[in-house]
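Hi,

Apologies if this is the wrong queue. I'm a grad student, and the batch job for Bacterial Ig-like domain-containing protein from Clostridium botulinum produced an output file that my downstream script rejects. I'm not sure whether the problem is my script or the file. Here is the sequence I used:
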Amino acid sequence: MTTGTYTKNGFYDYVYYEITGENNKEINIKLSEAVNGTYKIIIEDEVGNKTSKEIIVNKIDQELPVINSINVAGNKLTITATDNLSGIKEILYKIDDGEFIRYAGEVTLSPGAHKIKVKAIDNAGNMNDQNSSSSEINVNVEDEGKKNLEDATKAVEKAENSQNQDDVDKAREKVNKLPDGKEKDNLNDRLDEVQNKINEKKDQEQKSKEEKEAKDAVEKAENSQNQDDVDKAREKVNKLPDGKEKDDLNNRLDEVQDKINKKKDQEQKLKEEKEAKDAVEKAEKTKKDEDIKDAENKVSKLPDGKVKDDLTSRLDDLEKQIKAEKDAYIKAYNAVKKAKSTLDKEDYEYAKKALEELNTTIYKSEKAQLQRVLDALKPYIDRKENQNKQEERNQVRNIESLIRKAIATKDPKAIEEAQAAIDKLESSDIKIELQKRLDTTNKVSQIDLAIQARDAVEKLDRYINYADIMNNLNVVKDLYKDAEKAINRLDNNSQYKNRMDKAKSYMEVMETLAKYKENAEKNNILAGEKEMAELISKANQLDFTTKNKENIIKEILKFQKQLKDLGETIPSAEA
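Support response: The file is valid. Your script probably expects a header line. Output copied below for reference.
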């Protein structure tokens, strides 16, 4: 390389390079004294061919790079350097007597005293001043492991003194960074002890807290006697560990629960009792089947006791009342029906009495209808009764005529005809009077009549005492009529009155029973409980303790049971 003269403006007048014998050669040319400006490059080959190119240079770097810092923090080394022109190409460092090493980032130093030397090279190849104090430092690096162990130990000691969870966590973090080994294990063991104490304390505090909350909840439940409070308290108590405290609190809650249950049971009992009472009252008012069934259902669910017994008794009475009204209605209905059929005054009076005795709220409209039917029958009954009376008067006139004929003729046939006519009359004072007139006409002596009366009464007595009168009522009635006729012909028949009354009592009881049976079988008129009770009473009062009396009472009781077993269909009021 040949250079020309260096001019005042800082440029060489030329710089000449000669490269021979090489092809496609890339060369680097350093202009040590070059300055910024325009440079012309001329290239000529061996045969004289030339080419040239001008370039502008405005960033020629001749300044040295600067080391900004060599910093050691703990055992970590960091280096920074700057170059304001071409920029830093690389940083090199060496430790103690070692070789220079390219710096690529934070460097970990070994413990101990070290001398660190640094080089900074820019992109122009300039290097920092190696004689500058900024190019090297002396450091003493502490043993990081030892320091970490000391820090961790102090942290553990602090945790042991404070018994604080935050201190334990911080200490544990420091200990975990230590290398595995006995020292780390020992520190962890010490922290475990502290942690256990903290946990125990925390558990005890939590236990005390939960016990207090449970006690407070139990006390609240005891004061309020409220199911929700009991449930909440029970939940808290159940979370407690097994033991006396838990058992005591549960026992207290059991007592509260028992009181609540008893109160609830009592309230439910009172509610059910009220519903049952209301249902019974409704049934008593309406007497409807559905209301009675509802009341019976509600009463049956009540616990045994006075309330249930009283309500059951009321329902029984209601059933009896309904049955009595039903029986009385059926009896009245059939009695009216019979009276309508017979137009008989006795049947009419019986039907009238049956309607009067029909005290009902169930069959009000039916009773009114039956009364209208009975009222409509009255004129016909009266007309028939008048006809009967007229017939009776006609009979009496006819007998009187026959007696007059007998007196006038003294003819036995006339006397016999008059006697037959008298015998057809029902018992009455008129009949007795007519009989005496005929006897006077017939000149029958009182002695003969007394003998006839004695024989007739004794025959009646014997039959009642020894014969089967239950199946021979008509015979009894005929014997009674014969005896009655005989004593009525006497001027004084008082001696036979008691015996005839006794016989008549037997006959009346048997006739009444026969009538009740006939009414039940033919007319569906059932004798009521009151009527049957009166009949039994009369039977028990019969004189003569005979087999017939016992049989009559048995027959009445048998018929009474049949009446109870009968199930009647309630008829329409249209008789």
